[in-house]
Amino acid sequence: MVIAFTLHEFMHAWMASVFGDDTAKNAGRVTLNLLKHLDVFGTLLIFIAGIGWAKPVPVNSTYFATRRVQSIIVSLVGPLSNFVLAFIGFSIFYFIPVNQSFEAFLNIFVTLNVVLGVFNLLPLPPLDGYRIVSSLFPTNIQMKLVPLETYGSIIFLVVMLTPIGDFTILPFISSSIGIVMNSFYSFYELLLPN
């Protein structure tokens, strides 16, 4: 989780900085230091409810040259970093014989990163998927969505912390994990046929 959350938030901050927005950089967020990305409440929820989050990276898209496209890229690189980490972990497991303890670590590492990648692509505030989808809308509609984001976060927590999630979000995440893992296997089977 330390690796997955830290790299995820670092990528958001670094990409925004590359595109000309130094908001996150000035806040000390272009770093791989976990403590800079730690959210106390989000961390506590991980131990209490099994879900949680890191501190969101502040992004000011008015600094972007191509606001819509670069906003989408900044939002996308976080989940993408989790898929890359999962693929690296899967590749180590696939190619290198490891002992039972390290195998258990890799299994958790890969699964956690796939879950985080898929989870963050859900189009619900405050997740990255919502930022991606909302960036596709015209500016006037985006402005109308801003007041709804607070309520969206509350609704999201209710869904995730109650049985409602068992019938909505969790089945989608479970099936998506299978799709991603199968794509990893298929990639190597195609690349290295027996």
Automatic annotation (TrEMBL):
Superkingdom field: Bacteria
Membrane topology, from the record: Multi-pass membrane protein
InterPro entries reported for this sequence: Metallopeptidase_M50B, Peptidase_M50, Rip2-like
The UniProt record lists the keyword Calcium: no
Chain segments annotated as transmembrane: 40-59, 71-96, 102-124, 145-163, 169-188
Matching CDD domains: S2P-M50_like_1
Compartments (UniProt record): Cell membrane
A GO BP annotation: proteolysis
Keyword set, alphabetical order: Cell membrane, Hydrolase, Membrane, Metal-binding, Metalloprotease, Protease, Transmembrane, Transmembrane helix, Zinc
Pfam short name (any one): Peptidase_M50
Annotated Peptidase M50 domain residues: 2-96, 99-139
Known cofactor(s): Zn(2+)
Single GO term (MF): peptidase activity
This protein's record includes keyword Hydrolase: yes
Membership in a protein family: Belongs to the peptidase M50B family.
Protein name, entry field: Site-2 protease family protein
Native species: Paenisporosarcina macmurdoensis
